[in-house]
Amino acid sequence: MRVLPSGSTALLVEVESLDDVLGLYAALVDEPLPGVVDVVPAARTVLVVTDPAVASLPDVEASLRRVRPRPGSRGTGGTVELPVHYDGADLADVAALWDVAPDDVVARHTGTGWTVAFCGFAPGFGYCTPDGEPWDVPRRSTPRTRVPAGAVGLAGPFSGVYPRESPGGWQLIGRTDVAVLDLGRDPAALLRPGVRVRFVAVP
Amino acid sequence: MKAVTVLATGPLTTVQDLGRPGRGALGIGRSGAADRAAAALANRLLGNDPDAALLEVTLGGLVLRAEADLLVVTTGARCHGATAHNAPVPLAAGRELRLGGPATGLRTYVGLRGGIDVEPVLGSRSTDLLSGLGPPVVSVGDVLPVGHARQPLPDTELAPLADPPGGEVTVRVLPGPRRDWFADDAWTALTTRPWTVTAESNRIGLRLDGEPLRREREGELPSEGMVRGAVQVPPSGLPVLFLADAPVTGGYPVIGYVADVDVDRCAQLRPGQDLRLRS
Lengths: 203, 279
Known about the structure:
The complex is a heterodimer of chains A (203) and B (279).
Chain A: E1 2-6, E2 10-14, H1 18-30, E3 36-41, E4 45-50, H2 57-65, E5 79-85, H3 91-98, H4 102-111, E6 114-119, E7 126-130, E8 144-147, E9 151-155, E10 158-161, E11 166-168, E12 171-175, E13 196-202
Helix pairs in contact in A: 3-4
Chain B: E1 3-9, E2 12-16, H1 36-46, E3 54-58, E4 62-66, E5 70-76, E6 89-91, E7 96-98, E8 107-112, E9 143-145, E10 169-175, H2 184-192, E11 195-197, E12 205-209, E13 224-225, E14 230-232, E15 240-242, E16 249-250, E17 254-258, H3 260-266, E18 274-278
Parallel strand pairs in B: 10-18
Antiparallel strand pairs in B: 1-4, 1-9, 2-3, 3-8, 4-7, 5-6, 5-8, 10-17, 11-12, 11-18, 12-15, 13-16, 14-15, 14-17
């Protein structure tokens, strides 16, 4: 792992893989380091934000280097089952891309377990990564200016659910009625890093 | 009910507090007052809790009417006609606070003893203009409730403080996580040439104009976490210095970081002002 500078209050830890990110994130959530006020996982990095009044950056870096990442950290945050109406506007395009029937896309999406690796793009937007072989779905060449809340999409190696209406370039394969972001709920986001996700087909 | 009625807002007025720290993993940025030091000073002078909400006024123009006897202070950019700058004064029921434009600086904080008591969202009353979280932008006709102070008033009645400077401002910049994506001459250019703040700047970040920086390393960077102060270089080569409403993650290389203590001063820069980033 490489520790890169990120200003006077943060450190950016770069690791080899998404699984390493999950393992390090799980360790930092299980046993918070003194002086660390936020931990932000991403695709290959974990940003560690500190309160310099509590611990200096060199001290935090030293304790970071002693952290033992949790091996096999997929699914340390409980399981969420998301009922999905698979009627997305891009379902046929994805099927054509894979040279299969639309039902086969649904079968693959519901037939594998997923883990939220990190959030980004918008509050509560969880990037879900599948068990087993990584997926690879190109983004739409022209992003949509308006994607409705609850839309279930694919892009690159990830699947995700749009928490609120927004622009977006993911291939839309369905929609869920479950609010993945509810500002009145604590925690507000359903799809948090480490949470296991099962997509279930509903009519 | 203690309250103020908004009679004019100027170009942009929002409610701000310390923001929503600690939620980056959910894709939720911190937000909060762009000039944290100025906002903290206002609350201190009023005997408010540090997390009390106040108004962040951009380029002046705010007019408020007190609906009860209140105590008010302004900090940050000093507006013409501001009688309560860095020194709280009473604002009797029915009286108005009228802010003209500031001579220098960009953001004025209007604090009221007891704090602005609008409904918090995820633990904060800050309006995040990037994610849309928090109370709506303040508009004419709004009646903003004012809370009750729990602490006694401090002894100090005036904070002696220099106004935000006009003209060129120099801040310290540290190497960022992707400094090695740029040749040494790009780092030298970043840290020696002046950068002009453009009109596209906002609470999310300062968009800077100058000689574009050349990237040495091509290819895509997977999005990674960042905080305010990050100096990101998009494909145009013109850096963006992120402020309070910075995105939680970004996909362009961050060449450097403005030291956190200096970010407040950057939040007071107005379009046309020059910024120097000294390493």
